[in-house]
Design brief:
By secondary structure, the protein is mostly beta strands. Helices cover about 5% and strands about 35% of the residues.
Length: about 500
């Protein structure tokens, strides 16, 4: 059964705390492909890869404030919050079958946790404070340990006060490599993220009533890997696998590699029959695509990464060819090895309505046991929003954060298959994310859907989208919008699988 908030620490958590003398293992070499190491301009470090050769990959993630320059001078460096010395970092690279042991060291002045986005892991490792683990307080450690069952491009981030912590950079990359993937000449990570920065380099307001109740508050500066329009070096004439992440809190992007033929080969880490990037794949916050393209043939030639989800295409980064040109070979997008996601049985699956609405048409807190609430610890001031604007099935996640656990949105029978009909009753986009599962995306009433697997699906205004899961992973699983201001103002709940 899932973790229950009762004793201050579960027995398991105590056992872990006792054995927490973990050494950080940071072996270079097999992370970012060699041609890309140190390739970002202006002294920016490339993401530092963490990997290991044995069955276990160990990493220590120290969450704390670190100063880092995002804006050019005369602005000051900005007070980021990161898991490693430099944003973006770390990039954990593992082979499928390896086990990850990650120790969170909390050097913040608020409690936190790590959620492993997109990983079908045991519920106790899912990193949702109060729901799946006790919050990790200032000065405390928490060890996560699991073997990711699927290859793919994943990431991790906190699940409380996310609007500020993710807004200030608290996220890392987890890549699980396929044992039998086609060979690429380079394998890049591009994290697209806006920052809410004032001109002097200080952070502005992460959550506004106006933004939270509409499309969200947009950042003031766009970056890739923490750099404004960086130049990313690629081997000339090489076949490049670019793992494109939208880790922004708000913005929807639709990316292109201008000047090259781009092919989408994975969505949220899940292989997709190769599909032309030019056909478009809008990504809400937390969504990812893996794209294959051929680098320019000669050193010095460039391609541009742009976002076309705006009136004018906006440049985000430049790929510049370097080195001797690799030998000519046929450019042929090939499918990645298929993932092993449990197939839902659609003949037997009940259709479960999931309605996303504004609170104006919702009633919240029905069924919440006030006596239970009274027995819980006082609201943690670092983990709350003051208002509720959104609801799922007319339930809003209670104000004040995770410590006020409402009942589950619904309870599913373990082993059964379900179709969720996600109904967007609002005029805004909502990227809907489920923890611990991968959706099979089936159909929409408003557009032609490419069948695919995803952990986050972008729900268009007024759309009804059907997705399916086989409920084989027991526990309490968060289900929420990944526009962080929406998540933090009510559009969040959990699904119990028992
Ligand atoms: Cu939303």
């Amino acid at each position: 059964m899932p973790y229950r908030f009762a004793p201050p620490l579960s027995r398991r958590a105590l056992l872990r705390a006792g054995g927490a003398a973990i050494a950080a293992t940071a072996l270079g070499g097999t992370g970012l492909a060699a041609p890309t190491a140190g390739a970002l301009k202006a002294g920016l470090a490339a993401p530092r890869p963490v990997s290991a050769d044995g069955d276990l990959v160990e990493v220590e993630l120290v969450a704390k404030q670190r100063m880092q320059r995002i804006l050019a001078e005369p602005a000051a460096p900005s007070p980021l919050i990161t898991y490693a010395d430099h944003f973006p970092g770390p990039v954990i690279r593992m082979r499928k079958g390896q086990r990850l042991r990650a120790t969170l060291v909390n050097e913040l002045d608020e409690h936190t946790s790590i959620h492993w986005h997109g990983i079908r892991l045991p519920n106790l490792e899912d990193g949702v404070p109060y729901l799946t683990q006790p919050p990790t307080g200032p000065g405390e450690r928490h060890v996560y340990e699991f073997t990711p069952p699927d290859a793919g491009s994943f990431f991790f981030h906190p699940h409380c006060n996310t609007v500020e912590l993710l807004g200030r950079g608290l996220a890392g990359v987890l890549i699980v490599e396929e044992p039998d993937a086609p060979k690429f000449d380079a394998d890049l990570v591009c994290l697209v993220k806006d920052w809410q920065l004032n001109k002097d380099g200080s952070f502005g307001t992460f959550l506004t009533d106006r933004g939270a109740s509409r499309a969200g508050t947009f950042g003031s500066v766009s970056t890739v890997n923490g750099a404004i329009e960086p130049v990313i070096e690629v081997p000339a004439n090489g076949d490049i696998r670019a793992r494109l992440y939208n880790i922004d809190s708000t913005r929807v992007v639709d990316l292109r590699v201008e000047g090259a033929e781009g092919w989408i080969i994975a969505v949220d880490g899940n292989p997709l029959p190769p599909r032309r990037l030019e056909e478009g794949w809008p990504m809400g916050p937390a969504m990812r695509i893996d794209v294959l393209f051929r680098a320019p043939a000669k050193a010095g030639q460039t391609l541009r990464l742009t976002n076309v989800y705006s009136a004018e295409p906006r440049p985000l980064a430049t790929f510049r060819a370097v080195g001797p040109s690799l030998p000519n070979k046929r450019f042929k997008p090939r499918a990645l090895p298929a993932a092993d996601i449990p197939e839902p049985d659609l003949t037997d699956a009940p259709i479960v309505p999931m309605a996303f609405s504004a609170t104006a048409v919702a009633q919240s807190f029905d069924g919440l046991d006030k006596a239970v609430l009274a027995g819980l610890p006082a609201a943690d001031a670092s983990c709350l929003s003051a208002k509720t604007f959104w609801a799922i099935n007319q339930q809003s996640w209670p104000e004040g954060g995770h410590e006020h656990l409402p009942p589950p949105l619904l309870t599913l029978e373990k082993g059964r298959s379900y179709i969720f009909e996600l109904a967007n009753l609002t005029p805004h986009l909502h990227p809907i994310h489920i923890h611990g599962y991968t959706f099979k995306v089936l159909s929409s009433d408003g557009r032609k859907v490419v069948p695919h697997h995803a952990d986050t699906v972008l729900l268009e205004p007024k759309e009804r989208l059907r997705v399916a899961i086989r409920a084989d992973n027991p526990g309490d699983w968060m289900f929420h919008c990944h526009i962080i201001e929406h998540q933090d103002t009510g559009m969040m709940g959990y699904i119990r699988v028992a």
